[in-house]
Amino acid sequence: HEHASPRLSSAGARLWSLRGGATRAAGSGKPKRDEPPRLSLKFAAYVVAWAVVPTLLRVAYAYVTLPAAVPAPAPSLLQSLGYVSAPAASAPEALPLPQRWQVAVAAAWVANNLAVMVPGRYDSRRAMAAEKACAATANLFTPSGWAFAIWGPIFAGEWLMMLYLTNVPAAGAVGAAVAPGWVAALCAQAAWCAAFRPSVCGPGLLWVPAALLATTGACLAVAHRALRAMACGPLTNALVRWPIALHFGWISAASLVNLNNWLARVRSPLPLKEAAASASVVAAVAAAAYVTATTRDPVFAAVIAWALAAVAADGAKSARGLVAEATLDRVRSVARVGCGAAVLLVCSLV
Question: What does pTM read for this prediction?
Answer without folding.
Answer: 0.83
